[in-house]
Design brief:
The complex is a heterodimer. By secondary structure, chain A is of the alpha/beta class. Chain A has one domain: Alpha-Beta Barrel (TIM Barrel), CATH 3.20.20. Chain B has one domain. Chain B contains eight helices and no strands. The chains are: A alpha/beta, B mainly alpha.
Chain lengths: 326, 239
């Protein structure tokens, strides 16, 4: 073991000063909720428990709405398979995404995750299934969830969220009951495009929720002002949607031929995808980003963003200055 | 931020371009060689419209609308967009409307003399009505021939070609052209309403998907509006 303390039982004055300095420095740093697993993939802890999530998940808006097209179903199954092989965890969908829940169910059943009692493959053992409920409100929430579980072909979801705050009081009441009954692991709310942040803040402050999903990326940083600090304070996990602003952010950078700064390599950024995603998931309050794609090479780029090293707080400031100057 | 002002057109299109074009392909693959029948029906309807055989025209294309409602919208499009069923019902309503029109037999040639415009029959009126009918003829040809050729000409392949009688856009465009050739006044508005509404929705969708067909749909809509304005202003008995 290469440890200076092992050679002697005596603590020298020099060692003591070093230890003291390190302890002081550590106390000044913000608590860093992330860690790199043995594979080098970055994970973050959710809430007060010991559940961890890989920081790069997968969104399904537009990309998984392919109907019953056999060719596209096979392509999306391959994508989900690659996602798990590359260490993915969270997959997020919604009843508002057309056939996406059915397509996900098809992919999961093809890959070995299935109805209760069926053997589950290791590949999809890391699945963290996130769904949503939306209007109409009231008694329909349970029916929606039962319907979505059938469509996904899974016994229960890990996370259920109220889609875009639709009838959130009624839906959250139902979700809380389901959580108390052990029928869902976590509950939360969603918004996007920076909409209704003040209402989101009120719900975060007053309701007992585990997750909030919102839009956060290098060009949409409004959540940094109030929502992300509040999430950190309350221990609410944050899912960042629209990491590429619906694709326009990364497409514009590529179309304009913008090049990564030299120092980006220090934090493991070799592509714009990694630069943009690492910026998001390195925020201490963000648990996970959910980029959506239909292409395997894009998925691979996205998943590389979850690997060590991550940008430091100083790197993040550099990233913002660089992006704003473009 | 005002939550309503933050919505953009793409927020309402729940599928990507490749998925939409695959949908067009799958319908083509499934129903081949029905394309030939669709084109023959469309061509026959156009010839009958030139001969002012309006009842036969509506009788020919009413079942086409019902077919597109069932196959294009309810069987395929509704899988991608929850609104697909409602658009399918609108296409069914159009089929019924065309059938009723065929039974009633109301066309430009049947305009009661008492309701004729004072300017009808004057040289400028005749020219304007002919212009309106020519616009209709051009639009019908666009739906029958130009739109199907756009996919293969842009390198997308023949299976993505949209054909009258199978796909929604050429069916709506051709019907719009036929309506301009045969109808006037509120009857024209009535028959043109659903095709124009669909074409507006389709044009917006295609523009979000950055499809070349969007460049055809919007000029067709603009030309149709001009044609309708002309024909409603000059409802001449004889062009």
């Amino acid at each position: 073991m290469n440890n200076s303390f092992t050679g002697s039982n005596r603590l020298t004055r020099r060692h003591s000063l070093k230890l003291l300095a390190a302890a002081m420095a550590a106390s000044l740093l913000p608590a860093w909720p992330g860690f790199a697993a043995g594979s080098g993939r970055w994970q973050k802890t959710i809430g007060a428990g010991n559940k961890t999530l890989p920081v790069i998940g997968m969104g399904t808006w537009r990309t998984f709405n392919v109907g019953n097209d056999a060719r596209l179903l096979a392509a999306r199954t391959e994508l989900v398979k690659a996602f798990f092989e590359l260490g993915g965890g969270m997959i997020d969908s919604s009843p508002m995404y057309g056939s996406a829940p059915d397509v996900m169910g098809h992919a999961l059943s093809q890959l070995g995750i299935a109805q209760p009692g069926a053997a589950q493959s290791d590949m999809v053992g890391s699945l963290f299934a996130a769904e949503k409920v939306w209007s109409p409100a009231g008694g329909s929430a349970r029916e929606q969830i039962a319907d979505l579980q059938q469509r996904w072909k899974i016994p229960q979801f890990d996370l259920l969220q109220v889609h875009n705050l639709a009838d959130w009081r009624e839906h959250l009441a139902v979700l809380r009951e389901l959580k108390a009954a052990g029928k869902v692991g976590y509950i939360g709310i969603t918004t996007s495009h920076g909409r209704r942040h003040s209402e989101v803040e009120q719900i975060m402050a007053s309701e007992n929720i585990d997750f909030v999903q919102l839009t956060y990326n290098i060009s949409e940083r409004e959540a940094e002002n109030r929502l992300l600090p509040l999430a950190k304070e309350k221990g609410i996990a944050v899912i960042a949607n629209r990491p590429y602003n619906g694709g326009s952010l990364i497409n514009n950078l590529k179309r304009r031929g913008e090049r990564l700064p030299g120092w980006a390599a220090e934090c493991g950024c070799t592509s714009w995808a990694e630069f943009l995603l690492k910026f998001i998931v390195s925020h201490p309050a963000i648990s996970c980003a959910i980029p959506a794609t239909t292409r395997l090479e894009h998925l691979q780029e996205n998943m590389r963003a979850g690997l060590n090293p991550m940008p430091s707080a100083e790197n993040r400031k550099q990233m913002v200055r660089f992006f704003d100057a473009l | 931020m005002n939550s309503y002002a933050s919505y953009q057109l793409q927020d309402f299109i729940p599928f990507s371009a490749d998925v939409y074009f695959r949908l067009l392909e799958r319908i083509s693959e499934t129903w081949w060689p029905l394309h030939l029948l669709g084109l023959a029906l469309g061509a026959a309807a156009l010839l009958l419209a030139l001969k002012k055989r309006d009842r036969l025209v509506w009788l020919l294309i009413a079942p086409v609308w019902a077919f597109v409602a069932a196959v294009f919208f309810m069987q395929h499009y509704a899988q991608l967009n929850w609104a697909g069923h409602y658009v399918g019902y609108a296409f069914l309503a159009q089929a019924i409307l065309l059938l009723l029109l065929a039974l009633a037999g109301v066309s430009r040639g049947k305009v009661p003399a008492a309701k004729m415009s004072a300017v009808a029959g004057s040289r400028p009126a005749v020219i304007m009505v002919r212009l309106g009918i020519a616009i209709g003829f051009g639009i019908a040809l666009t739906g029958l021939l130009a739109l199907p050729l756009m996919a293969p000409l842009s390198g997308a392949g023949w299976w993505q070609a949209q054909v009258f009688g199978l796909h929604a856009d050429p069916t709506a465009i051709t019907t719009l052209g036929l309506a301009l050739m045969l109808l006037w006044g509120w009857r024209l508005w009535l028959v043109a309403f659903i095709p124009m509404l669909w074409l507006l929705l389709s044009g917006l969708t295609l523009s979000v998907l950055q499809a070349t067909e969007a460049w055809l749909v919007f000029p067709v809509l603009a030309a149709a509006l001009v044609g309708i304005a002309v024909l409603c202003r000059y409802p001449a008995k004889k062009a």
